[in-house]
Amino acid sequence: MNDFFSGDSAGGNLAAAVTHLLSSPHSPDLPKLKVQVLIYPAMQAFQFQSPAYIKYTGSSVPSLLNSERMLEFWLRYAFGHDFTKVNHMDLLSGKHLTADWLESKEARYVDSKNLPPKFRGDSTVPNEVKNDTLSRLLKPVFLDHRFSPLLADDETTRKSPNTYILTAEFDPLRDDGFYLAARLRELGVRVEHRHYTGMDHGFVSISLYKNSMNAVGEICDYLH
């Protein structure tokens, strides 16, 4: 196995989740990683009221990935063909965020205080009536750190290898990368975080973009 894992978007989610599993004391015979590279990763399904999720809805984002589409992906990942049993707009409006969610230890990992001041409070959402049934349905999956790697406990997260995180401005997943970078640094993990302004989700794969080549070059330099 290589000494590093890398993934973009959903692949970043999977790479981070597997990295946690490799560092588990229950898997002592598995290889340990030196580095993980996470490119605009999907890191948490705790809440979808981060400024980026609220701002980049509908046609307000120049790429194919807006918040509504991302929520559909989360639901497909959680429930497969049964994904339609949850209305993704209920998630975007926070109907699942009952008191026990908001008072949990995981809530502090997605606090907007972990974002740069310029990204805080881009948008607000209505104070929706909470749905206890929805909350109970989602909790076993959405709060599982194998599904939402950002929510792993401190002991697990502290064992993360050196981490390179790339985020893009016009991306509902933008804030997930900032949340993760803040958490890793707080726990003493070495982090290199590169944020690309003016870029959208998926730009690294578009070779016509100058910043795509720049990003690939920087990642290769980091790994070298």
SSE inventory with pairings:
Blueprint: E1 4-8, H1 10-22, E2 35-39, H2 51-55, H3 67-79, H4 88-92, H5 99-102, H6 132-142, H7 154-158, E3 162-170, H8 174-186, E4 191-200, H9 210-223
Which features would summarize this protein structure in a list?
224 residues; alpha/beta; four-stranded parallel sheet; 4 strands
How does this model look, in words?
37% of the residues are buried. This protein starts with a strand and ends with a helix. It has a four-stranded parallel β-sheet, with helices on both faces. The mean pLDDT is 91. It has 224 residues and is of the alpha/beta class.
What order do the strands of the largest sheet run in, or round the barrel if closed? 1-2-3-4
How many beta strands in the DSSP annotation?
4
Helix content: 25-40%
Order of helices and strands: EHEHHHHHHEHEH
Tell me the span between the first and last alpha carbons: 17 Å
What low-confidence regions span 5 or more consecutive residues with pLDDT below 50?
A: none
Shape: globular
SS field, number of helical segments: 9
User: What structural class do you assign from the helix and strand content?
Assistant: alpha/beta
Sheet with the most strands?
Answer: 4 strands, parallel
Roughly how many Å is the radius of gyration? Answer: 17 Å
Percent in strands: 5-15%
Q: How confident overall, as mean pLDDT?
A: 91
